[in-house]
Structure formats: structure tokens, C-alpha cells
Amino acid sequence: MKFDAPMGDTPIDTGRVVGRPHARVDGPLKTTGRATYAAEWHDGLPGLLHGFIIPATIAKGTVTAIDTAKAKSAAGVVDVLTFENFDINGTANGKTVKLVGGPQVQHYHQALGVVIAETFEAARGAAALVEVDYEAEAGAFSLDGVRADAKVCGAFGGPGETRVGDFEAAFEAAEVQFDQEYRTAAHSPAMIEPFASIAQWEGDGLTLWTANQMIATTRSSMASMLQIDESRVRVLSPYIGGGFGAKLWAHADAILAALAARKTGRPVKVVMPRGLIFNNTINRPETIQRLRIGTRADGKIEAFGHEGWSGNVEGGNPESTVLSSRSVYAGPNRLMADHMGHLDLPEGNAMRAPGDAVGSIAVEIAMDELAEKLGLDPIELRVMNDSQVDPSQPKKTFSNRHLVRCLQDGAERFGWSGRQAPGTRREGKWLVGMGVATAYRAALRSASGAAVRLETNGRITVETDMTDIGTGSYTILAQTAGEMLGVPVDRVDVRLGDSAFPKSAGSGGQWGASSSTSGLYVACVNLRREIAQRLSLDEERAEFEDGEVRSGNRVCSLLDAVADGPVSAEGKIDFGQSDTHAFGTFGAHFVEVGVDSYTGEVRVRRMLAVCSAGRILNPVSARSQVIGAMTMGVGAALSEKLVVDERYGCFINHDLAFYEVPVHADIPHQDCVFLDDVDPHGNPMKAHGVGELGLCGVGGAIANAVYNATGHRLRKVPMVVEDILAGLPDPV
Amino acid sequence: MKAFTYDRVTSADEALAAGAGASFVAGGTNLLDHMKLQIVTPDRLVDLNRAGMDTIEPTAQGGLRIGALVRNSDLAADSRIIADYAVLARAILAGASGQIRNRATTAGNLMQRTRCPYFYDTALACNKRDPGSGCSAQDGHSRTLAVIGTSDLCLCQNPGDMAVALRVLDAGVEVAAPGGGTRTIPIAEFHQLPGDTLPVREFALEPGELIIAVVLPPPAGGTHYYRKVRDRSSYAFALVSVAAVIQPDGTGRIALGGVAPRPWASEGADAAIPHGAKAVAAALFEGARPQEDNAFKIDLATRTIAAVLAEAKEARA
Ligand SMILES: Cc1cc2nc3c(=O)[nH]c(=O)nc-3n(C[C@H](O)[C@H](O)[C@H](O)COP(=O)(O)OP(=O)(O)OC[C@H]3O[C@@H](n4cnc5c(N)ncnc54)[C@H](O)[C@@H]3O)c2cc1C
Predict the structure, then answer these.
(1) Which regions span the lipid bilayer (chain B) (predicted)?
(2) Within 13 Å, how many C-alpha atoms sit on residue B1's CB side?
(3) Cα–Cα distance between A655 and A159 in angstroms, integer?
(4) A589 with A721, same domain?
(5) What pLDDT, on a 0 to 100 scale, did the predictor assign at position A719?
(6) What is the mean pLDDT of chain B?
(7) Confidence band of A89 (pLDDT split at 50, 70, 90)
(8) Is a pLDDT exceeding 90 seen at residue A320?
(9) Across the interface, do A732 and B278 touch by the CB < 8 Å criterion?
(10) Contact by Cβ (8 Å): A399, A681
């Protein structure tokens, strides 16, 4: 089905199953340890070997010698393979650097090879015996150092610079001018499940169990890197312990497992150790951002300028900091540009809400500063500059933009009117402040297919290569099929993450939920037709409810349709470009923080997000997405920072003790409210995703709350105690 | 991980007999991490977990003797500790996580090693790991490291919480030697400063010596405080911590964590307590040699001392 017209009424609108707060259907498997993650497929793999990655320990240069003799003779070692033994064609789709380096080293901890042994411990022990000689070269590791040479550059095929009207003239002429610079640190996805793969060959066919968000892409990556036909590759990733973008591509574990298994003729498992994840894989790069906003005296924006600078490997993408600025606030004159400088740090790439997660921090602090300069309430300024058309493409109207309602509803719920002047609210030793920010993230849509089958026992089976990265895909797909076919969720079996199933949108860019359920919707429409035909019912009028199919005064059981065997159907959704509509998800974040007036420690006290994203397919899994994203925003605002050691060209804090993500005690109270709306222009489900929306703006709201608490403005995240202390009066 | 032999012992004597050239393992929460990362590669492990030494007994002097194998969780939950040595319970509970404290032992906690990123990356120079290789932390990322008591050889901080409380309590560490005999090392001397000669020594233990107990003197009275400052609310090492016992007359004792290779305290600083945080900090940080990244710790420590003294003052009022 090509989706190109607004959706009329569908069975989904009845909301008997979809839109209900179903607990995760895969929850019991996960809580009892029976969900098989990539590293856990031991059954049926006799002779499984373990591979341990040999990492480069320089950032840039050449391997002049690599001596594996000692490692090869260590107890339990089966083989040691290095780049000298491999012939890998290119790299994974979507990645820039090679998964296995050598002789050229492109970044610290780039894989150079793999030690293969009978046990994990033997492989790990022997990896330390591999002796590598390098000829190191000087590299570029500082964003400040390359900023002057950075070039305008677009991310992921998008434009580098966009202009509307005459920004410079309008800014110059504006009654109020605001011009500030902001910085955000580099982030690691730091998901709990490390990258992991098990590879097994049968003849020339590869089966790869791996932790991956995009099955079809990874299948074609593996085929092309290994130079075999795609039909010879099967990729399985049914359960994934978080990805945050980093599992959009195949990584070193996947290719090394495949090569090691091919060489040894035995299945091989490669798990990436925690300490390698930070430098071996991808990160969200550090950014510098400049915001120039010119307004009328009443606060109406006349000129909006947002420029970003980031660094990446040659051929990589810049962090697309200005993406959302193209659409979030009104203003007839606009300049948005991303710049990229060449750095020899590990590759920067798409991490949850790429661009927007950090772009929104700068924009939302700027809006707070601007409101103060104008003497306006920060909500008033945002409301005044709302736009129902996309300000960068004024011919397009937002299909479903309720930002103003989110802000106003949130203000009411949060008690925004109780906010006091900066630095004036004190509770004992605590300085207390509130902050607000807009959340905006585009609602991307992506083609997606699924198969659905009515089994002879009346159960429904759904199959698609869609992934569940902890998000709830299993559950919303079960709900979709249940709604369409008139059965409760516990009669639906959803099977995901297998390249043998129809190709889906995969998980990324918060498009997964709406796209994959839409593809399944189409499959279910087709299955309903098949079932109606088998039952000789009028397919147009047939209603599916309570395990029955009703049409006129005829009532059949679903079981009647499978007397001769299962009925199955496939379906796929495709999306064209809309000339009339822009698609987005919107929200408002509210945060209250306490700042310890002695120590400068910032502790979040409560958080609220009010979100609008069309139909919410499942309010509990959507809530989990949003509060998880808010938690990630707390990390970005208060602690997460990959620290570059410019002498070695690496992120030096490469474990979870030195790279601090929030813990439970940091998150005392979170609320998430969804506006009750549907977007018939978006897709058949009238729904959009929320997994990235929840992250956009959070850091800005926290920074604004810190300012409100202390009266001291910080334009750099994370805001750590030494930054806070610089603005606090001496307590002694 | 390198292959190693493993022996289980059932008494301190057996441990001492088996201990030559071996590493003792107690809770394993620190040692095993280091073995996996090959920061240390012992050939032999002697497991102390069945060697007794796991009770807390009163001493003739009116204090307590804490067995080396008493788990951190049990120690922090002991009613005598809570009543008379609350700073110790608070310090322990401010560290690690419930799961780790259930495993971690009194001796192991005292012997935990530094949290320096360069100690943890075996590709980079570290005098502690590889004597003579150099110290990558100098001019490196030193935000969490020590500001005083360091040398050109090493900038390591002692990351522990428990030891800081033991320092204000004036505990003694009872150790037994392989050849027989025991001695008590004052906690103030247990952790070594790096100094100017290699190897960088961390502990006052001689090879083969076994910690058998930690001895607390009779209760000091006063009100007990442990204030730990960190980037997140839990499960993080201290940027700075303050252990204090403050008496009703405003005198007391203070020790700092996170700022030096050992819990940092001095008699001069204690004497300055009635004169306020700045006076205390001035005494504690005399001769400090902070790096650019961690100079803030001095201000932060001063302010944290102020917070504790203010709280104590309020409690007395
Ligand atoms: C994730 C994490 C977070 C942590 N956070 C904190 C924190 O916030 N604050 C804090 O203070 N600590 C923290 N720790 C450290 C923790 O306190 C220590 O790991 C623990 O106390 C070590 O005790 P153990 O019994 O497990 O020691 P082990 O790992 O068994 O041994 C540690 C060392 O002590 C030696 N040893 C053990 N017993 C004896 C003995 N009887 N005689 C001589 N030598 C002996 C061992 O040979 C070894 O060298 C954290 C640890 C982890 C893993």
C-alpha cells in the first residue's frame, strides 16, 4: 500500500486493543532470563569457539609488524587472525571507518584482528600476548583546533546550509539581538548489552546471531563485506538490550565472528568488551553551536540563525545540530548551517535523536535567555513563536502540531506559575529552580513489511524483520494484529528480528513504531480479505471481533476459516513525499532541580513531559520510551561526557565507572502525559514514535532550571560541580 | 585473564602458610576486575572466604575488633557500629552498591586500588601497574585524581569511603606475618604516598602479610558525619568526601577522601575546626599540587567542610 492520502476510519480506531496499556508481551521471557540475546545462543552450537578482539592502541598511523606467535601457542588458542589474513570488502553500510583496520589505523581501539580460543578466558588472555608495532602519526583530536578549517557539510544526505529570506539583514535590523555560543560534550550510547555476535557457516551460507537494530541493512552489509550473495546470509536479532543508534550497523564483532567461523569451520562468538565500546564503535560527537536570534521588541522572531560545528573522520557526517531549528520556531529569515572539521577520533555517527538531542539543548537555553532579555515568560516566548507551517518550507503545514497545548497543559500540571526569579528560591541549603523546554523531533516514516497468519488453532502469527531494542515493538505489533483480527493480545505470537521474514523499517529515528505497525496493518487488511473469502463473507463489511467474523447476520468463528489449513498474507507500507504536510512530534519538558549551595551538586527533583505524537499505540511502552529518554537527557545535562585525551587521541574514560550515566537515585520523580490526538495524515495507524522526542529539549530544560535556581547561566553541558561552583557565592 | 592456581584456606594460619607469592582474594570485587583487565596477573590465588575472621568482637579497651572478612553490608548494619561509630556505617553505605557491599570485605575495602583512568588502560604508561613506565596522568585527564600527597611518579587518589571514616576514628589495622607474629598499623600510615622512588608503594603491608582485623578504639562520642560529593547521586566514587566527628563543644576530627593517595587528615586541621572551614582547609591543603583539571577539588572540599560544620552547628543549637 502506498500511503498518500489521509486515512479514513479503520478497525484500529475502535481502540479495543491498540492504545491500551498492555504490559510487554516479551516481559516474562526477559525477567526470567529466557529471552535469548545475541551472546546467548548456545544451544545447538556444539564446538562454539570464542573470539576476542585485538584492538589498536594508537589513534593514527601504521602497523609495522604484528606478531601473533606467542598468542597462537597459548593454551586453548585455536587460531589468531589479523588484518593480514582478511579480505574484507569495504565497511558496513552506514559506517565510514573500516570495521577491521590495518595496516592503516584509523582510530584508537580499532579492531586489528581476533584471537580464537576454546574459552573466552583463553581468548582474552592470549589477546594480550599479541605484539603490535606501530608507526604513529600525529592526528587531529581537538574540535577547537579544527573549527577554523571546518566546512559547511550536511548530515546523512541532508543540506549543509539552508537559508530563508535574508538572515543577516534581518538580524542586523532586529530590535532585539541575541548572540551566544554553546557547547555539548561527546556521548557514548553506553547501552547495557554490549555488541555481540555468533557466526556459523553451513557450506557457503552464514547464520549470524547479532545485536542489531536493522536486520536487512546488516544482512546486505555482511554479504557485501564477505563478497557472498545476500541469499546466503541469515541475520537473527530477536532480542536487543538497547542500541541507541549504535546498533544500526554491523560492527567488528559481527565481521570478526563471521571470518573466524569461516576460517575455523566452527561457530564463533565475539562479544565486544565494555572497555572497547567507547572507542571502537561510534559516538555522538562534541559540538559547538552559535545561536543568533533577532526579534521585535514584543518577542516575535524576525531572524533565526543556528550554526553548529563538530568533528568527524574523513567522509563521516557532522552532528546535525541545526536539523530541528529549521522547523521548530517561526521567523521569516533563517540561516541554519552545520560545519564539520576533520578529527582522528573514533567515528561519530547516529546516536538517539542525532543532531536534535544536542541541538535542542543549545536552542532551548537560547530561548530561555532570550525570554529573560525580552522580559517575557519563557513559555510565552515559545507560544508567540509557534508556527503551524514549517517555517523552512512554508508551503507545508504540520499535520499535527500541538506544541502550544503541550506547553500550556504542562505549565498547569507542573505548577509553573510558582516559578520564582533566578536565584531566589531557597529550601535550607538547596537552591531550587524550574526550567522548561520545547521538545521537537521530526516524524520520519519508512517502508515496512510484515507477514501475518491465522493458524489452525486460531492463534495469529506475525513475522517481520522488525527489531525490539527494548522499546516494545513486540507488544504494539501484537496489539495491531489483535485489533485488526479481533483477538486478544495473548492469542498473537510475534516473531521479530530474522532476515527470513519480510523486510521492515527497523528501529531507528523513532520511525519504527509507526512504520512497522503500519506495514502490519496492511498485511492484516490482506489477511482479513483472505479470511472473508474463505468464509464467503462480504469482505468490505466483515467485522472481526472476539474471535469471530461477522457480516450482516452471519457470524463465523475464525476457526472456520482454517478448516483446510492456515491462512496467510503479507503486506507492505510505502510512503511518498508529501507536498502539503510536514510531520513532527512535539512536547514540552518541565524540570525542577535543587542545587546544593555548598557543593554545587545538581539533583533533579521532578520532571514532566507532555507529548503530542498522534495516536499513542501503547501508553505504558510509550511512557517507558519517554521517561527513558528523559533519563538520558539528565545524563547529557549533568554527567555524560567522553573525555578526549589529545595526547593519545582517545576517549580516556572508556568504562561505565568513568563515563557516568544516571542511576536510579538521580531520577526521583518523572511524569509523562500524552495529548489525546491522532494524525490521519501520517500513516494508517495515525500514530508517530516518541522514543527520540522524549530526549529532545530535556538538557535545555535542566540547564534552564539550574539557571533559575542559581542565577548563574551555563552554556556548556554537562554542567558539573566545578562549573556550578564558579557561579555560587562563598558559603563560609 | 591469565591462568592461575587457586587454593581455598580455612584459617588465617593456613592463609599465611599458603600466601607466599600469592594474591589473597576476599570478596573479589576489586581483584577480579583487575585480573580480567590484566592490570594484575597473579599466578596464584588464595581464597580467604572460608578462613573465618568474620566476626565483630568487643575489645578489652572498650572498642571493637572487626574481622578482616566481615562484609561491608554486615559492618554497616551492626547495631554497635551504628550507635557508636556512625561515621563508619555512613561512609560504607555511601560506597558502591548493595550487591557489591554484600560481597566486599573489610580488608578488601581497605586494599582497594586507585580509580585512575590511566591505571585502567593497560596500553598507557602507569608506574603503579608497570613501575618505571611513567605516569600518563601527569598532564592528562586528572579531574578525579589527587591534589595533595602526589608526586611526579603518581597522581592517584585513594578512592575508598570506609577508610576515610576509619581515619577519623583512629582505627588500627592488625596484620599477621607469614613467619608468625602480628603488628598493628595505624590507619594514618596504612596507605602510602607515592614519593619519589619506584616502585610506587600503596600499602604498608609487607609481602605475604595478611590483614586479620581492623580495631576501633573506644567510642569517641560526638556527632558523626559523612558527606560525599559526586557527579551522580549514587554508585560513583567521591570527588571529595568529608568524614567528621564533632563534639558538643565544637571541637572534633575531620578527614577527607578523594583528594589524596590516603584519607587526608592532620592534627593541625583538627585543631582548626573551631575556627571554621577555611582554617581547616588551609591546614589540610598546605603544599597541595593540584592539576588544572582538579584544582576545583580544593574549593569543593573547603565548601563541603563548611557544609558539615554548618550542619554540626545547627545540630548543637
Ligand atoms: C562498581 C563498583 C563501584 C564501587 N564504588 C565504590 C565506592 O563508591 N566507594 C568505595 O569505597 N568503594 C567502591 N568500590 C570498591 C569496593 O569497595 C571494593 O571493590 C571492595 O571493598 C573490595 O573488597 P573485596 O573484599 O571484594 O576485595 P578483593 O577484590 O577480594 O581484594 C582487594 C584487594 O585486597 C587484598 N586483600 C583482600 N583481603 C585481604 C586480607 N585479609 N589481607 C591482605 N590483603 C587482602 C586482595 O589481595 C586484593 O589485592 C566499588 C567497586 C565496584 C566494582
Answers:
(1) none
(2) 14
(3) 35
(4) yes
(5) 98
(6) 97
(7) very high
(8) yes
(9) yes
(10) yes
Q: What is the DSSP string of chain B?
A: ----EEEE-SSHHHHHHH-TT-EEESS-TTHHHHHHTTS---SEEEE-TTS----EEE-TTSSEEEETT-BHHHHHH-HHHHHH-HHHHHHHHTSS-HHHHHH-BHHHHHTPPP--HHHH-TTS-BTTTSTTS-BTTTTS--TTS-SSS-BTTB-PPP--SHHHHHHHHT-EEEEE-TTS-EEEEEHHHHBPP-TTSSS---BSPPTT-EEEEEEEPSP--SEEEEEEE-SSSSSS--SEEEEEEE-TTS-EEEEEESSSSS-B--HHHHHTGGG-HHHHHHHHTTT----TTTTHHHHHHHHHHHHHHHHHHHHH-
Q: What DSSP character marks residue A330?
A: -
Mean pLDDT to the nearest integer, A699-726: 98
Q: Does A140 map to a domain?
A: no
Residue of A nearest to B123 (CA): A57
Residue A204's pLDDT is 95
Count up the domains in chain A and report the number. Answer: 2
Category of B242 on φ-ψ map: left (φ > 0), alpha (ψ -120 to 50) or beta = beta
E strand or H helix at A161, and its extent? strand A161-164
Q: Mean pLDDT for chain A?
A: 97
Instruction: Tell me, yes or no, whether A403 and A464 share the same domain.
Output: no
For residue A539, what pLDDT is reported?
A: 86
Pick from A39, A56, A72: nearest CA to A110: A56
Residues 30-89 of chain B with CB under 8 A from chain A are: 36-38
Is the same domain home to A492 and A546?
yes
CATH topology of domain B223-316: Enolase-like; domain 1 (3.30.390)
Q: What is the mean pLDDT of residues B198-202?
A: 93
Same domain, A560 and A673: no
Residue A60 C-alpha, separation from nearest chain B C-alpha, in angstroms: 15
Which residue's CA lies nearest to atom 16 of ligand 1? B109
Return the residue matching grid coordinates 502469527: A461
Instruction: Tell me whether residues B306 and A732 touch, CB distance under 8 A.
Output: yes
Q: pLDDT per residue over A566-619, tens digit each?
A: 999 999 999 999 999 999 999 999 999 999 999 999 999 999 999 999 999 999
Span of A36-45, B97-106, B239-248 with lowest mean pLDDT: A36-45
pLDDT of residue A731: 86
Sequence letter at residue A319: E
Residue A63 inside a domain? The answer is no
C-alpha A391/C-alpha A396 separation (Å) is: 9
Shared domain for A653 and A700, answered yes or no, is yes
> Could you identify the atom of ligand 1 that is nearest to the CA of residue B72?
21
ipTM: 0.97
Please state, in angstroms and rounded to a whole number, the distance separating the CA atoms of residues A338 and B236: 36
Domain boundary among A514, A549, A575: A575
Q: Which DSSP letter does residue A283 get? A: B
Residues A678 and A665 in one domain: yes
pLDDT digits (tens, 9 = 90+) for A345-374: 999 999 999 999 999 999 999 999 999 999
- Interface with chain A: mutation pick from B5, B136, B141, highest number of A CBs within 10 Å: B141
CA distance A593 to A707: 10
Residue A265 has pLDDT above 90, yes or no: yes
A545, A575, A605 - which closes a domain: A575
For the four alpha carbons of B13, B19, B25 and B30, in that order, the dihedral sign comes to positive
- A490 lies in which domain range? 2-35+445-575
Residue A26 within a domain: yes
Q: Ligand 1: does its nearest atom lie under 6 Å from the Cβ of B76?
A: no
CATH of the domain at A500: 3.30.365.10
Classify residue A67: in a domain, yes or no. Answer: no
Annotated catalytic residue A692? yes
